[in-house]
Amino acid sequence: MTSLAEVQSAFGRAVLGGDFSALTPYVRTDGISAAGRIGVYRNNVVTSLTALLADRFPVVERLVGDGYFSFAAESFIRAAPPGQACLDGYGSEFPSFLAAFPSCAALPYLPDVARLEWKLFAIARAEFAEPLTLAALAGLNADTAANLRLRCDPAIDYLASDWPVDRIWQAHQSDVAEANINAGACRVELRRYDKKLTIRALAPAEFAFRSALAGGSVLGEAVTLAFEESGDFDFFQALATLFSEQWVTGQNDPATSQEGT
Amino acid sequence: MRGPHMAEILSDRPALSWVEVHPENYLRNHPARAALHQVRRDVPVSLHGVALSLGSYDGLDRGHLRELRFLADEIGAGLVSEHLAWSRVGGIYVNDLLPLPYTDETLAIVCRNVDQAQEALGRRILVENPSSYLGFNHSCIAEPEFLAEIAARTGCGLLCDVNNIFVTAENFGLDPVGYIDALPAAAIGEVHLSGHFRTSREGQKLLIDDHGDRVCPEVWALFRHALGRFGSVPVMIEWDKSLPPLAVLQDEAARAETIAGEVVRESCFDIAC
Description:
The complex is a heterodimer of chains A (261) and B (273). Chain A has eleven helices and six strands. Residues 257-261 of chain A have low confidence and may be disordered. Chain A has a three-stranded antiparallel sheet with strand order 3-4-5, sandwiched between helices. Chain A has a two-stranded antiparallel ribbon with strand order 2-6. In chain A, helix 2 packs across helix 4 (66-79), helix 3 (58-64) crosses helix 4 and helix 8 runs antiparallel to helix 9. Chain A has 261 residues and is mostly helical. Chain B is of the alpha/beta class. Helix content of chain B is 46%, strand content 19%. Chain B is built from nine helices and twelve strands. In chain B, helix 3 (62-75) links the parallel strand 2 and strand 3 (80-83). Chain B is globular and about 50 Å long. The termini of chain B are far apart. Classes of the chains: A mainly alpha (261), B alpha/beta (273). Chains A and B meet through helix 1, strand 1 and helix 2 of A and helix 2, strand 4, strand 5, helix 4 and strand 7 of B. Strand 1 of chain A pairs antiparallel with strand 7 (135-136) of chain B, so a sheet runs across the interface.
């Protein structure tokens, strides 16, 4: 008696790995061979997931060309098939896969372009959060301010790269421009404003300050990191700007939390 | 309703009786979900899932069911449907609707999963007949009987996709009218119509259900026959690939409505005679 578990396990290997051997004996072959029939499903799976990745990494696809992109995508799908019913998170590991993919070595900036595209894809779908005004810090205790955590708008993210991936990305938004890949490193803030995605280059200290806070660091740590980048870092100005730019959507003042307990 | 039509529906507010969406596209995409809420103010919304994997031996994903329930409650989904297919094995999701062997074992597993889905979602679901390109040597129950048995055992409704019946019947040399006649009319809660793609493999014709064209004449004729059996049920035009302007879908929907009207008049005439 054939069990459904055996059939499904064999089918999974066939459509994702291309190994049809275990499934073939179960398939009725009238008119079209087992391989021909299984191939319809394998093709559907691989082409739909490749199209999904191409949609999420359009600049990577343009940089490497359709044919090579399909090859890399198929290798990725085989190595890391989707693990969830909702495919919104699928592709998050594609940048690190490309970094380890031997034949991508000729384009050393490719993984960071992919990281940039993934972050843009993710913030485009992020939840909406109401910004706080500076008045939210009115009761802040100077002794505990260093331990304050600020919650960043979920539609903001940061990326630092040794390559000018912001310029490479911008150049591929139109057909005309070519980016100078020797333009050096970049530190950028990515943000969704209303429905538009923006990429903004930041000075090293400001990048250190904002990306540390967004990553969950307390204010004291973020300020220290910023001063390591530049002794001229203006902390009060930087903090006020976070509020004026509606960056802050929540705060966790340890002093206030303790009072609450 | 596909993403590209959403902006048009929100700005022009065309007269639509209802729209149907794949819930997976709205579970974690917050701007899309906000837009769906806006659409819902004017038009009823039904959810047509593609990733629940009702046929999985491994069972259903409880986390996915919770997300689905939340969305269905939040937008007040008119209908919730899924496919007689599977996509989940060993913690991996295959992005497709894979076929099932129709056996007593599969029937028991599908019914267990449908029970679990209806319990978790707090409502009756509709189960749709799939398009098939592959059959199993050990299948021993015909697909319409298999669907009828699921409906009888679990109390779920059925979504009759007339194009899928045509595609499967053409691919396996079955009689599509006989298929429709073998479905339990009282269980049918919705009908789907769409186009398909005609190709061949190894010199034999093969129809692929790509939802990329207008409904073909043979499927319109089957639709007329199906409505004669099922009576008045909600009808949805599906279109995924090569998405045309919304007006083309509205044109197809208007044609379906005309046929439905004719079928009602014909049946009244039958009774009068």
